Write a sequence for this structure.
């Protein structure tokens, strides 16, 4: 980008060309992008309840943006699925289905922690063992919330702790919501033997059948864990509710108690996330 500056008469009235620095160019680009986003937000806010469809002319008048600017913004937003032309009249625009995807992601981010925290704390108080909530991020399971046991010797699972998706009871619970093709695609690049893969697939299918998973000595050698999947309104397994403890405390009676509590807790969170077991069945 080139800027032109006029010298003073004392300098001979000459015109010189002055190149902007790279940092100035970057600032201009950032400023342009921010302004474009701001205009897009103004345009989207022009859609109001009770007015499902609007023309480009109406949007221009309502926002104060020029007709060419509105046309350009509508084109960009339409390509992203955030607005769409009305089926009955292509001269009208309405909000697109892309917002449903964004709203679902945001709802999961906000609601799952909000609705799960009291459940985690209640289970922790009942069994006095560490309870955590993990989600899938790429090929990993990442803990996003927990309620820690009050025992002097306890399992510590802090937010941000992550392991490979297929490792541990929480991973089995999450993968139980995947279909066989998804499981096969996930396992394909994993560097384990075919025998190990077969055992893992069997464990995932058992978790799918039983509604929970139980693992000993996998994430850490001295820990036992019980986990159940949390499902959203679409029936997808979006999180894993897990109780973990030192192995010596995982007696048969304690294991049975934790299975009941974790399955019940996962079901409660799922219902709060909009899951309908009757429709899923």
């Amino acid at each position: 980008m080139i800027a032109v500056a006029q010298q003073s008469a004392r300098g001979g009235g000459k015109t010189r060309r002055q190149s902007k620095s790279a940092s100035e160019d970057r600032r201009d680009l950032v400023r342009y992008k921010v302004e474009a986003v701001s205009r897009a937000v103004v345009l989207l806010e022009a859609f109001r309840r009770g007015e499902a469809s609007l023309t480009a002319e109406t949007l221009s008048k309502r926002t104060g943006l020029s007709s060419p600017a509105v046309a350009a913004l509508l084109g960009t937003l339409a390509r992203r699925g955030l607005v769409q032309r009305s089926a009955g009249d292509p001269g009208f625009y309405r909000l697109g289905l892309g917002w449903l995807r964004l709203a679902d992601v945001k709802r999961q981010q906000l609601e799952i922690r909000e609705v799960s925290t009291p459940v985690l704390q209640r289970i922790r108080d009942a069994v006095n063992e560490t309870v955590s909530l993990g989600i899938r991020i790429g090929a990993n399971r990442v803990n996003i919330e927990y309620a820690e046991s009050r025992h002097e010797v306890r399992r510590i699972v802090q937010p941000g702790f992550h392991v490979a998706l297929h490792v541990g009871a929480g991973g089995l619970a999450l993968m139980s919501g995947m279909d066989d093709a998804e499981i096969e695609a996930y396992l394909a690049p994993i560097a384990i033997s075919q025998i190990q893969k077969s055992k893992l697939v069997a464990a995932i299918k058992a978790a799918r059948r039983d509604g929970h998973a139980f693992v000993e000595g996998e994430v850490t050698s001295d820990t036992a864990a019980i986990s159940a999947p949390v499902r959203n309104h679409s029936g997808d397994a979006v999180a894993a509710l897990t109780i973990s403890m030192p192995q010596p405390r995982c007696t048969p009676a304690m294991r049975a108690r934790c299975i009941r509590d974790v399955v019940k807790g996962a079901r409660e969170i799922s219902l709060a996330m909009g899951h309908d077991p009757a429709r899923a069945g």
